[in-house]
Design brief:
119 residues, mainly beta
Length: 119
């Protein structure tokens, strides 16, 4: 399963961005979709938000109330609406999808999209 992310860019503090990530491939089921990020100088990716197949959402404490994750199952696409951005949100954002393809579990990652928030 391939993931293609888009929507990153350079914004000022307080502004908004919307990230999109579309999954493609043949004969697959997506259970969970999510966004993770890796800040400059940090080695670990951290969870930003996830959403499962029935719409249950999970957010990192640092983004609660500012970010909203959603998905369009017909388009196999997950979105991340990011409002009230601050410089601490600067990172490469990666989308993730987990599910089953031809009876085999998969855990796929997108290529990452850079979000830069200036103060």
């Amino acid at each position: 399963v391939q993931l293609q992310a888009s929507g990153g860019g350079l914004v000022q503090a307080g502004e908004s961005l919307r990230l999109s990530c579309a999954a493609s491939g043949t004969i697959f089921v997506i259970n969970d979709m999510g966004w993770y990020r890796q800040a400059p100088g940090k080695q670990q990716r951290e969870l930003v938000a996830t959403i499962n197949s029935v719409g249950s959402r999970n957010y990192a404490d640092s983004v609660k109330g500012r970010f909203t994750i959603s998905r369009d199952n017909a388009k196999n696409t997950v979105y991340l609406q990011m409002n009230s951005l601050n410089p601490e949100d600067t990172a490469v954002y990666y989308c993730n999808a987990r599910g089953v393809r031809q009876f085999v579990p998969y855990d796929s990652w997108g290529q990452g999209t850079l979000v830069t928030v200036s103060s």
